[in-house]
Design a protein that fits this description.
The protein has 187 residues and is mainly β. It contains 1 helix and 21 strands.
């Protein structure tokens, strides 16, 4: 059964990774104001956990700076979980081939809400890469992200995202598209 605990970073847990490792389904991780860097604050996997990861005071006050050394989050796991990511600025993510800030593959259908994605890059999906998933991306800002091959902000392969009330500016890709879907009739 879910414990519904609040796990606080950095007061109880020194990093996002430490809190995610300790979290159980139903938990909420609350991240206090600050700029978070270093290996324990990037490449965080939600796995199959249904966990909410929220900033205390919104994206202007809680920044994950990946320092061009990896992406912020991976959503992929064997079970159908509904993780939540809310209230972060994610910047300087470098996702290699897929997803500069977020890589989302398979069953997890995260809710990504009230986040700012800036200056992230990857070959496919400067900020977010989606494959065989149907996340909700709500009230987010995408600015100055680069998809070197395609999808300046978001790329979707066999995915059905709901993108609602988001703004896009200064995102780049050779294909000239902010959002690129490889599904016919999706956009």
């Amino acid at each position: 059964s879910p414990s519904c605990a609040g796990l606080y970073v950095p007061t109880q847990y020194p990093s996002l990774q430490a809190a995610m490792t300790a979290a159980q389904d139903g938990d909420t991780i609350i991240v206090l104001d600050g700029i978070y860097t270093g290996p324990a604050n990037r490449n965080i996997s939600f796995g199959s956990k249904s966990v909410a990861l929220r900033s205390l005071n919104g994206p202007q006050n809680c920044i994950l700076d990946c320092q061009q050394l990896g992406r912020a989050f991976n959503f992929s796991g064997g079970s159908a979980s509904s993780p939540v990511l809310e209230g972060f600025t994610i910047r300087n993510g470098a996702g290699g081939f897929y997803g500069g800030a977020i890589y989302c593959y398979g069953n997890p259908a995260p809710v990504i809400r009230n986040c700012i994605f800036e200056s992230n890059s990857a070959d496919q999906g400067g900020a977010i890469m989606l494959s065989t998933t149907s996340p909700m991306i709500v009230n987010c800002i995408f600015r100055n992200n680069t998809g070197f091959v395609g999808g300046g902000a978001i790329i979707a392969y066999a995915a059905s995202p709901t993108v609602w009330n988001c703004s896009f500016s200064g995102n780049n890709s050779p294909a000239g598209r902010t959002i690129r879907s490889l599904n016919p009739n999706t956009y």
